[in-house]
């Protein structure tokens, strides 16, 4: 079932150390559906992807985090990666960027370790979500309900556990972003 996302502008928020496949595969699926995707990062020029514990490719940053405005985008994707998610939580602008999508009622998708950003942005309370299993205590402590499923949809939020779940994650993200 193909979704038409022509005219949609999708932000991908990443720092060095993001899990490469958790950015490239959703990005490709969104672009094939007609969306324009842009990498936003506190990194300058390029951002370093990871293939689990090994360095992956470098990707051009389209918009510096300091210049990015949530109002300019229709949806947000947060790829995982331990280093990526932990680093992004140290940037107040990244936290407010994420929170703004929730405040504006826009769809957000987060996979693997990316829900750490949701905890930091204080948007987890009362929501049901999934993530890499090691985040479940953080999510529960933030008032969320963590469940072990490949993909969880809770209103505007789509979450997933790991790279193995990307095909189902992509289908749910396309559905959520097309509405």
Description:
The protein is an alpha/beta fold and 179 residues long. The chain has a single domain, classed as Rossmann fold. 32% of the residues lie in helices and 27% in strands. It is built from six helices and twelve strands. The chain has a seven-stranded mixed β-sheet, sandwiched between helices. Strand 4 and strand 5 form a beta hairpin. It starts with 8 loop residues before the first strand and ends with a helix. The relative contact order is 0.18. The mean pLDDT is 97.
**Overall CATH class:** Alpha Beta
Flag low-confidence runs: none
Strand content: 25-35%
Largest sheet, spatial ordering of strands: 6-3-1-7-8-12-11
Mean pLDDT figure: 97
* CATH superfamily placement: Class I glutamine amidotransferase (GATase) domain
What is the number of independent domains?
Answer: 1
The CATH architecture would be 3-Layer(aba) Sandwich
Number of strands: 12
Q: Describe the largest sheet.
A: 7 strands, mixed
Tell me the helix content. 25-40%
Order of helices and strands: EEHEEEEEHHEHEHEEEH
Regarding quaternary structure, what we see is single chain
Question: Structural class, please?
Answer: alpha/beta
CATH fold topology: Rossmann fold
Apparent shape: globular
Number of helices: 6
Task: State the end-to-end distance.
Answer: 14 Å
Secondary-structure blueprint:
Blueprint: E1 9-13, E2 18-19, H1 20-32, E3 36-41, E4 46-51, E5 54-60, E6 63-64, E7 75-78, H2 82-88, H3 92-103, E8 108-111, H4 115-120, E9 128-129, H5 136-141, E10 145-146, E11 151-154, E12 157-160, H6 166-178
Parallel strand pairs: 1-3, 1-7, 2-4, 3-6, 7-8, 8-12, 9-10
Antiparallel strand pairs: 4-5, 11-12
Helix pairs in contact: 1-6
